[in-house]
Amino acid sequence: MEFRDLKEQYRRHRAGIDAAIQKVLMQTDFINGSAVRQLEQQLAVYTGVRHCISCANGTDALQLALMVWDIGGGDAVFVPDFTFFSSGEVVPTVGAVPIFVDIDADTFNMSPESLETAIQYVIKQTDLQPRVIIAVDLFGQPADFVRIRQIADKYNLLILEDAAQGFGGSIGNRKACSFGDISTTSFFPAKPLGCYGDGGAVFTDNDTWAELIRSYKVHGKGEDKYDNVRIGMNSRLDTLQAAVLMEKLAFFDEEVELCSQAADAYTRRLQDLVKIPIVKENMVSSWAQYTICLKSSEQRKSIMNAFSAEGIPCAIYYKKPMHLQRAFEEYPNELKYEMTENVCERCLSLPMHPYLTKEDIDKVCDKVRNALRVGV
Ligand SMILES: *Cc1c(COP(=O)(O)O)cnc(C)c1O
Q: 3-class DSSP state for residue 209?
């Protein structure tokens, strides 16, 4: 059993993917080839956002957004305390200060109440200027953008949606990558829409910002790459990755649906045993992860031991809250992070991908059940 089965995906779609790669090899347009622009157009249509600008990875995508908004020294950026390191890392990269925000234990996403507390703290107790909320669509479910947007409006803040794990999710009829003033995603192989290397994209409806992103990602270009009007970076999605992504986008919705069936099957079998992930009404998750919470870290350990004996893969996303990462030790961390600390001790992500069989799911759930029975 695979944690995320990219081998089976390739086996099923090999002819199309091989042909797409061959085509790029024959054209040798490896950088900025035709597939890159085509993919950007398809992703803009898919997400319902005016502009999609591809780049080298999801971390660069976040950084590009902060650069375009001129975020830097003296600015505070709000980031969930429970996420992958990148969501917070890009803040000091541009010279700003990350303020970590506790999560909602049902969805693992940023808690709107804790967000407002954190904003009040920055206003009253620091000299920082609150500027941006980085809201992460963790494990595939969009953050609570209805309430986060109300808070952003109240305090005049920008929203940066980190949909690295959220691509394919939705709220009502709106897709992930459309909820931020700028939104980003990652095409790292294990993400919901993954390529065969690194890749990322930035989304926005704002024409001015879109043009600035196109400049920043190509060495701050003016009229062309050799006319440089600002300090930028070199952040490209290469043509081979774009060609692979277009092939995969064609069957992406089908894969999200299969993941959601697998998630339902897990939930049916596990809901009376462990704390299962909750997808809120009106929301669709793209199920980047299916993450359960146990009663204690000891219980988690016994399940991991049982899995290990049977060769069942699993992972702890995430073991350490952002505010306890050594890299962030110089930043404010006096707010409360009870939910995050609690979840870090008890969470466990189970195998999740479109090609899990009923037997795989039964096996995982049986092992959880047995491990818990032995444990009590
Ligand atoms: C993977 C991930 C990123 C970074 O994406 P890369 O393409 O690896 O740079 C950012 N944020 C979150 C929440 C992620 O899961």
A: helix
